[in-house]
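Here's what a typical entry looks like (DNA-binding transcriptional regulator, LysR family):
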Amino acid sequence: MDDLGPIRVFLEVARQSSFTGAARVLGTTPASVTRAVARLEEALGQQLLLRTTRRVSTTSAGAMIAARYTGLLEEFDAATEQIRQESLPDRGQLRLNAPMSLGLRLMPGLVESFRLAYPHVQLQIRLTDRLIDIMEEPCDVAIRISQAPADKSTIWRKICEVPRHVVAAPALFERVSRPQTPDEIDRFSCLSYGDTSEPETWTFQKDRSRRQVQARGDVISNNGDLLYELVLKGGGMALLPDFITSEGVASGAVETVLDDWPVPMLWLTLFYPPYEKLPPLVATFTDFFEVYLEENASGAFRWS
């Protein structure tokens, strides 16, 4: 039985114990209800209802069908409604993933503004500094800060560039020399950002000159805030995004190192599963995110 209509009609007759009552609820005629039930009984090869002059009741087969089909139809209707909701640009569930340091600074204001604009959207937000596999994780949009994407199995949208600098607390230079060139950096004072045991390599460029420095410090972490706290305590220098360090630089708690030898900026990118076309709600969030970032956090980012 491919058509769910006769099943719905039968279930309503069973609930009302009346063809006339079911017709009233369904907004149709008793004759149409009778024909729909007859089609279902013919398709199943079973009598489902017992008709008397005073009431209608189910047969044993009808009672079994009613018990099983009621739950199935409720699940079917719930799934259909969820799909319908998620096809709308202003309601449904949206699953987001963001880096820890950026998420803690950006997401509270972003989420509050988004909820005010779209009160019928349910947000599920996960923060992690691990580069997730968007094909494996339950995620509709992943906010990422990284080098230019090389993975061709996903689709992505560059939002802006993320400036970064090597920073150190003034106290560090009481025990190590302040470098004037990348070659003068004390590599054992360099703290590494990374997800593996491999130390980080910093790349500097000035005009046509390019220098690389491999950090030799004894700390490697995949969290920028932890590295920044170590920097504040004079425990070394680290290459960090400006959105982590800008307040400390402004207050004098830390200072930038080798300003005339800039390092390449990172990209702030939105990653998506390989949609053929962005779902309307994902497209809504994408546009909102870009506008919010430019209006509220432009000082720590660069738009090309």
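DSSP finds eight helices and 14 strands in the chain.

More examples are in the samples folder.
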